[in-house]
Amino acid sequence: MSTAKQLYMWHQASQALAASQREMEWLGQEGHELRERIREISRKLDALPETAEPDRQIARLLLEQELWLARQEAERFSASEEQRRQELELAVREQQFRVWEWEQHLDQALLAEYDRVRETKERPIVEVKNNTCMGCFLPLSLSNLARWRKGGDGKVVLCDECGRILV
Ligand SMILES: [Zn+2]
Fold it and tell me: Which of 19, 26, 109, 133 has an alpha carbon 20 to 30 Å from 37's alpha carbon atom?
């Protein structure tokens, strides 16, 4: 396998890992927001004075209903959250291992090039499909295409148009 291909595999594994980690953070955030909402409704209910006045009673009934719904939602969420969290933890462990595994094969010069391109491009390394760069979707020049086909002769092949590393 060419070193650019290895870099690409590492890049994809890193992206997958980052996505799982983001989802885990988001999971924590959503649970926090639900608990916060329940606290907020409870505070409003507590602040409502006990009275026989019909308007106040309606307000109380509405708040109680809102609280009930929020608790239902929180219950549903925490049941599915726990399962999703376990799945994600497993996925993160596997992905961390995969990233580490690919890292062992990475060419340091290529990695430095990757970091350089990454300063301006979110996806610094892309595939070539139908003689076209999958980063900017422009066709490769004939000379670049020839270089890319030869696997760069041990050198990094960059897209002439967007400067991304080509796999
Ligand atoms: Zn390009």
Answer: 19
